[in-house]
Design goal:
Shape: globular
Largest sheet: 9 strands, mixed
Number of strands: 36
Low-confidence stretches: 1-39
Structural class: alpha+beta
Mean pLDDT: 90
Radius of gyration: 28 Å
Distance between the termini: 24 Å
Length: about 700
């Protein structure tokens, strides 16, 4: 009762702080029960609609906690030890994250650069990102004493990245005037410009244009060569400051000539002549081949002038098998560096707002875009990919996809082949740009998602999506329920599946569909019923032993709201052990009737019978803290459980045949240490079954509703 009163007061204070922008915002403890979440509502737009405040940082709409402080307070992602997934690539401008052109900051350039560096370090050391050197085309790094260079050289174990933007190159002509790159200025030669027989210029849509000149694909290699040499010079300067290699360089690639419909080229005499001379029958093949030739001429100069980039991965934005306005994947992909002996496509998954999550609306690409592109890429043998992702960049964050929904979508991208993500957010149009404290959460959601992928990496790399009747990969698996996204990938040689689903919504205002639903679908001859949450639910379903089907959830600890509201406690599923000695099998309790497997209220647990069976778990903590430990356990024989946390001991006699949360007794205070912590569990006597472990600073049994289990 005392705890409930204390909790109510905390929530009430948080609500007052959120609604009163004149007061300084403070951090708050995490809500402890789903029933209390409904209190965190705010009316918007003078209507009867409300938003869920827990989907926003504390203090919304006037958030005072800066991006770096938020990053440091978010719970860390939980990667599987010794995984081999690549780091994430940051496409969120670090200067804007640091306060550039922010109307509320009024920071000096030195302060912005200091924030830039601190956020860059935090992402690289805590969130599995490349340490990013920035856009080298802008020539922003001008000495070996640049803070980014100093950090990169001091920490060679941390991979580094850079971006190049062909279109942002600047040069001086023979008169000393600053000019754009040659790929733009070559329009002075009308031979390289789209026009009809009358000499009238075309727009990209084939309409008459009096002044706009659109480049065709006839330009010779010496034009992109010149720009490649200029870009190579920029990179050569950066490399002269570095004592280690650049691991990956991403070129934006949004340079002309662009993809244009065939009917426009058919009226351009130079294009028709060029196509016929080269012997191409289709315009699509002609355009894709010539686009790749032009890009290759540019890239070859960069590599030729900088031998130190020999082992650097080169990627390009939006080289993919997308359904519209994309060059042929089989021809265009050769511009990319191979990774794992295949080409990683780079589609943009930019739904931007919740109503677009499943469809395509102009430049805003929801799941349908991914589905169409993946089918082309997988057919070509390229099973893995690395998408650009952004949950929206509206100035008003209430229009952008919210954290729970976004996390669920990203996990599904992992199942269909995403090994890593290019995390984007864009400041477009006129200032004031979106406030970074409103969108810094977008930096960590790809990390949470990739960390879950690390727990099924072997299935990711060797397995495949299931095929439909036409032998095409199923990128969105059919379910009976609407607004449920489901993805499934199968192990190469076993009847073991990774399944990830997310309960979707098409709006940010309430009422919304439930945060949790039961997905119903057919798999391996069974009708399956499986709990699916807004933030995504990812499982390993193992049919290897037909009489003992196993289900393991990989992400039960994830929560549905903004990560600042996530619990700072640790919920561990015992099925997700690190390295058990004398391995014990996972056991799953569920309901089976006829050909239906109902996992709606399943339990998966470990059974240990002696001290020779040791379950091992790892926790990474941000700071030292005292803690209490609870286990959800039962015993049919009666017995004693022994737990060791960093050599501190706790134990308890267990004699209840039903599941219950039990606090372990310890002689001294148990402590989590900053960094890696090891937990070992054994049975001193008797047979003990353990479902979950809960590590908390409060001496109280956990409220599982927090995690929407």
């Amino acid at each position: 009762m005392v705890k409930e009163k204390r909790f109510f007061i905390v929530i009430f204070l948080a609500f007052i702080l959120a609604c009163n922008s004149s007061k300084k915002n403070t951090t708050s403890s995490t809500p402890k029960a789903q029933s209390n979440y409904s209190m965190q509502l705010k009316k918007v737009n003078q209507s009867n609609q409300s938003i869920q405040l827990l989907e926003y940082p504390i203090g919304h709409p006037n958030v005072s906690l800066k991006p770096l402080d938020q990053l440091r307070q978010f719970p860390l992602a939980r990667y599987k030890k010794n995984h081999s997934l690549p780091p994430l690539f940051n496409w969120m401008d670090l200067n804007f994250l640091g306060g550039k052109m922010h109307p509320n900051y009024k920071l000096s350039n030195e302060q912005i650069q200091s924030n830039h560096l601190a956020i860059n370090k935090e992402l690289a050391t805590q969130w599995n990102y490349y340490f990013h050197l920035g856009n080298v085309s802008r020539n922003a790094i001008k000495s070996a004493n640049n803070p980014n260079i100093l950090f990169a050289n001091k920490h060679p174990q941390i991979p580094i990245s850079a971006t190049t933007l062909w279109t942002q190159l600047q040069r001086r002509d023979e008169t000393g005037k600053v000019r754009r790159p040659h790929i733009f200025t070559c329009v002075s030669n009308l031979k390289y410009v789209l026009k009809n027989d009358k000499g009238e210029f075309f727009s990209r849509k084939g309409q008459k244009s009096d002044t706009k000149k659109i480049i065709n694909f006839t330009i010779p290699n010496d034009i992109p060569n010149k720009d490649g040499l200029l870009q190579a010079k920029r990179l050569k300067t950066i490399l002269s400051y570095l004592t280690r290699p650049i691991n990956i360089i991403n070129e934006n690639g949004e340079a002309p000539p662009f993809y244009i419909k065939d009917y426009v080229f058919k009226h351009d005499a130079e294009s028709v002549k060029h196509k016929n001379k080269l012997g191409f029958e289709s315009w699509d093949e002609y355009k894709s081949t010539q686009k790749t030739r032009i890009r290759k001429a540019y890239l070859d100069q960069i590599k030729k002038q900088n031998p130190r980039l020999k082992n650097t991965i080169f990627s390009w934005y939006s080289v993919e098998g997308g359904p519209a306005d994309r060059f042929d994947w089989n021809l265009s992909k050769s511009i990319l560096s191979k990774v794992d002996n295949q080409y990683y496509s780079t589609p943009n998954f930019y739904p931007k707002s919740p109503e677009v999550w499943s469809r395509v609306k102009g430049p805003f690409h929801g799941w349908q875009w991914i589905e169409d592109g993946r089918k082309v890429e997988i057919k070509a043998g390229d099973k893995l990919f690395s998408p650009f992702v952004a949950a929206g960049w509206y100035r008003n964050p209430e229009k952008n996809i919210r954290p729970g929904q976004w996390l669920g979508l990203l996990k599904c991208l992992g199942v269909v082949g995403a090994t890593f993500y290019y995390t984007g957010h864009f400041s477009t149009g006129k200032a004031p740009f979106p406030k970074p404290e409103d969108y810094i959460w977008q930096a960590v959601m790809p990390t949470y998602a990739q960390a879950i992928t690390s727990h099924y990496e072997s299935i990711l790399r060797t397995g495949d999506l299931l095929l439909d009747r036409n032998k095409k990969p199923i990128v969105r698996y059919p379910v009976e329920e609407q607004n449920t996204l489901l993805t499934i990938r199968k192990h190469a040689n076993k009847k073991v599946y990774v399944i990830s689903g997310a309960a979707q919504t098409t709006k940010n205002t309430v009422p919304q569909p439930p945060l949790k639903s039961i997905a119903t679908f057919e798999l391996n001859g069974y009708q399956i019923k499986l709990p699916i949450r807004r933030q995504g639910s990812t499982y390993i379903l193992d049919f290897t032993q037909s009489q003992s089907i196993k289900l393991t959830q990989l992400d039960a600890w994830h929560q549905a709201y903004h990560p600042h509201w996530w619990s700072k406690d640790y919920l561990l599923d015992c099925s997700l052990f690190d390295s058990p000695k004398n391995q014990t099998p996972t056991i799953t309790d569920y309901t089976k009737s006829n050909n239906t497997l109902d996992f709606s209220t399943f339990s998966s647990y470990k059974r240990i019978t002696s001290s020779n069976q040791i379950l091992t778990y790892t926790i990474n903590a941000k700071q030292h803290k005292n803690c209490y430990i609870f286990v959800r356990a039962r015993s049919t024989t009666g017995g004693n459980i022994n737990l060791s946390l960093n050599d501190e001991k706790a134990n308890k006699k267990i004699d209840n045949r039903n599941w219950e949360w039990i606090k372990l007794d310890a002689k001294d205070t148990l402590r989590l240490l900053k960094g890696e912590n090891k937990i070992f569990i054994t049975s001193i006597q008797g047979t003990i079954e353990i479902d979950k472990i809960f590590i908390t600073q409060e001496n109280a049994i956990p409220a599982l509703a927090d995690w929407q289990l």
